Every structure is written in C-alpha cells, then in structure tokens.
Amino acid sequence: MILESKAILQIQKPIEEVFEGIVNPEIMTKYFISESTGRLESGKEVTWKFPEFDDQFVINEVEIDENKSISFVWDPETVVNISLEQLPDKSTIVRINEKGKELNEENVKWALENSGGWANFLACLKAYLEYGIQLRKGAYDFMRKN
After folding, report:
1. Number of structural domains the chain divides into
2. What is the CATH number of the domain that holds 6?
3. How would you class 131 by CB atoms within 10 Å of its CB: exposed for 0-12, middle for 13-18, buried for 19 or more?
4. Rounded to whole angstroms, how far apart are CA atoms 129 and 46?
5. Which helix (H) or strand (E) holds 44?
6. Which regions of the chain does DSSP assign to beta strands (E)?
C-alpha cells in the first residue's frame, strides 16, 4: 500500500491568479516560503527555505501545465501534484496530493503531518490571495527557539 497525503480548498480568485501564486517566488514568499532560488518551471530545479526551519529543500523534477497543474519532487520517495480547476464563478479549486511512501508506522506519521502541512499551505494561499493576510507570519516562531 502506498500512502498519500491530500488537501483541497476553494479559492475565490481566477485560476491564472492562483497558478501564479504557486509558481512565482515573489508571491510565495508572502505566504509560504522565506526564500527561493527561482520560479517553478518545467525541468528547472529550485531551492526553497522556510522561516521556521534551518534546512533548505531542493525542488526538482518540476512539471508545469500552465493554469492546470504543478508537479514536483522534494522528497526522493514522493511526488507532489497540485491540480487547479476553475469553477463557473471564476473561483478555483486547488487539490494537492503527495504520494509514494510505503505503509509503515513512520510513514503513517508522515502522511498525517503532510496532510496538515498542505492544508496549512492552502489556507495561507487563500488568506493571502483573497485578503492580503500573511497567516504564517509569527506562526512558527516557537519552533526556532527550541
């Protein structure tokens, strides 16, 4: 059995704006990451840094279908797939799944944590795109102090 973490959310913005919010590091640094070495583009490798972690995360095997899907690897065992669907009211459904890990106790913990992490990503994306609110600002300061 292969484990999969999932998250889904509707964002009250057109698909083009949501897509740009995910691939453009100038926007992503306002709600998700603290640094990026570049824009997500097919075949390109970038590195992300998060404000709450000292580690850097290499994003590779990037595949982009503009305004439809974004796929990448940041854990050699998994693939992240983000799909976008525009609704008649011009809002956008964003679906995320990350899968590839085998079923075992450690990986069940991973799936639960990552499902929560991707839900957090979507909530932060929604808050920023719809209202200009940066939900992550100060949210993880306690992690850097431990």
Report:
1. 1
2. 3.30.530.20
3. exposed
4. 23
5. none
6. 2-11, 35-36, 46-49, 56-65, 69-73, 79-86, 92-102
pLDDT tens-digit series, residues 95-126: 999 999 999 999 999 999 999 999 999 999 99
- The 10s digit of each residue's pLDDT in 48-75 is 998 888 899 999 999 999 999 999 999 9
Q: Provide the domain limits for residue 62.
A: 2-145
Please give the backbone phi and psi of residue 23, each rounded to the nearest 5 degrees, phi first.
Answer: -95, -20
- Contacting residues for 89 by C-beta, under 8 A, at least 6 apart: none
CA 60 to chain centre: 14
CA quadruple 38, 60, 40, 108: dihedral sign: negative
Residues 6 or more apart whose CB falls under 8 angstroms from that of 146 comprise none
Which sign does the torsion angle of CA 97, 98, 101, 104 carry?
A: negative
CA–CA gap between residue 20 and residue 84 (Å, rounded): 11
What are φ and ψ of residue 127, in 5° steps? -60, -40
